[in-house]
């Protein structure tokens, strides 16, 4: 597949997650709730996690922001739901490495998350893409304390 076709496909995946977000809403019952924002552009997210027996048993988000921010949140929730806490944190590390154009463990299937690779070329947008991931890390670490 040519670069232009791949770029078009990635844009379509990002816009699909933006227009049809997965796991958007709120969780019932007791959960970990994290509110974060990106003051430079106004993106904001509320992430809710349920962690049971060392796994992310449920995850939802709500918020407002650009297509990159909201798509990334949608993709992240899909990627970590049902995963162990360790795997969720590993995925976050891989995503951070991708955003910083670093080498990363490419043996793990990232699914739709790969569509966000191009964001690394736009430093001002990296904070948009990583907002939900930072919220997830903060939530997991808050439970560990």
List the uncertain runs.
Answer: none
CATH fold node name? Sufe protein. Chain: A
- Major sheet strand order: 1-2-3
- Helix content percent band: 40-55%
Q: How many individual β-strands?
A: 3
**Largest sheet report:** 3 strands, antiparallel
Reading the helices and strands in chain order gives HEEEHHH
What does this structure look like?
This protein has 145 residues and is an alpha+beta fold. The protein has one domain (3-144): Sufe protein. Chain: A (Alpha-Beta Complex), CATH 3.90.1010. The protein is 47% helix and 19% strand. The chain has helices spanning 3-19, 67-80, 85-99, 123-144; strands spanning 32-38, 43-52, 55-64. A 3-stranded antiparallel β-sheet has the order 1-2-3, with helices on one face. A hairpin with a 2-residue loop joins β2 and β3 (55-64). α1 crosses α2 (67-80), α2 (67-80) packs parallel to α4 (123-144) and α3 packs antiparallel against α4 (123-144). The radius of gyration is 15 Å and the shape is globular. The model has no long low-confidence stretch (mean pLDDT 93).
Keywords:
alpha+beta; single chain; 145 residues; 47% helix; three-stranded antiparallel sheet; 19% strand; globular; Sufe protein. Chain: A; NIF_FeS_clus_asmbl_NifU_N
Reconstruct the topology from this structure:
Layout: H1 3-19, E1 32-38, E2 43-52, E3 55-64, H2 67-80, H3 85-99, H4 123-144
Antiparallel strand pairs: 1-2, 2-3
Helix pairs in contact: 1-2, 2-4, 3-4
Domain NIF system FeS cluster assembly NifU N-terminal: 10-128
Pfam families: NifU_N
Protein name: SUF system NifU family Fe-S cluster assembly protein
């Amino acid at each position: 597949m040519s670069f232009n076709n791949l770029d078009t496909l990635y844009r379509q995946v990002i816009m699909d997650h933006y227009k049809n977000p997965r796991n958007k809403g709120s969780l019932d019952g007791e959960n970990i709730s994290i509110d974060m924002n990106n003051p430079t552009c106004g993106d904001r997210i509320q992430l809710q996690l349920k962690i049971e027996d060392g796994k992310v048993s449920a995850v939802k988000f709500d918020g407002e922001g650009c297509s990159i921010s909201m798509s990334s949140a949608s993709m992240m929730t899909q990627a970590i739901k049902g995963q162990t806490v360790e795997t969720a944190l590993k995925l976050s590390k891989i995503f951070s490495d991708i955003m910083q154009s670093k080498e990363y463990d490419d043996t793990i299937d990232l699914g739709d998350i790969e569509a966000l690779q191009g964001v690394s070329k736009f430093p001002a947008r990296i904070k948009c893409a990583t907002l939900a991931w930072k919220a997830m890390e903060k939530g997991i670490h808050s439970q560990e304390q």
